[in-house]
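<instruction>
Derive structure tokens from the sequence
<data>
Labelled lines for chain and fold
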Amino acid sequence: MTYIIIGLGYFGNIIKNKLEKKIKNKIITVDPYNTCADYKTIDEIHFTYGKWFVTSPASTHHDILIDLFNKGIKDIWVEKPICTTLHKTLDIFAKKPDDVFLYCDFTWLQHNSIKTLGENKDIKHVEMKWLNDGSMIPKDVNIVSDLAIHPISILTFLLMKSLDHIKNIDIIYATNTSVLINGISQNNTTFNIEVSNSSLIKHRSISLYCKDEVYRWSSLNEFFIENIGNIEKTDAIEENIKHFFNRNNIGYPLDIARSLEIVNKKFNDLCTC
């Protein structure tokens, strides 16, 4: 088995390192801007077997995925977001051949603490903070598609449906480095999500207010949930790779894409950045 990584940036190198630790098979890298890559373009690769990882900038995903479909590639992993718009994402799924396995990576949905929180079905209110220190800000997507996609995907997972089923959702404030999202679901679960790319520290936290208990999780102690206890430690990225290898597509790619589109529309209406 051969593994091909398209895009040798921050996340592409993480995938490469994870693969190198677990397997002894050949790893081929493609990146037009990284001199350490084996090839500059996928047209230089003249075979269609293997597992292909698309970890290039989000703005390139649509064209790369269509190209891989046309070349007859059967196993494809794509980093979040699948595409920069819902229209392009729907186009990908419409054009994907039936025998192609497309795995959409939403890393946090395979984190054991997040999966444990998802076992709670009587959620009344959700609070999430997703803060970055600004050290890695992509140029081709805004803060919603880059950073808010993580809590949005988790909220979609917790509610088990996309935000187009939400009764109301509002952007309280929005800048090019921060956004505050409030909303209420059809079953009256309220939520607020604070996202920032200009925090002094990198930090994530989730609080679930359920009928009889409050569960709190923080990245400061990421395998512990208040009122549940210690959680088994696993590597979420390695778990995602395992699901990809087993052709087990977990997650809700289209629901998350629809959720993202709704938030992005409201963000773009409010933010003049």
Remarks:
- The two ends are 46 Å apart (CA to CA).
- The domain at 2-105 is CATH 3.40.50.720 (Rossmann fold).
- The CA atoms of residues 149 and 164 lie 15 Å apart.
- Helices lie at 10-22, 61-71, 86-95, 112-117, 143-159, 236-245, 253-270.
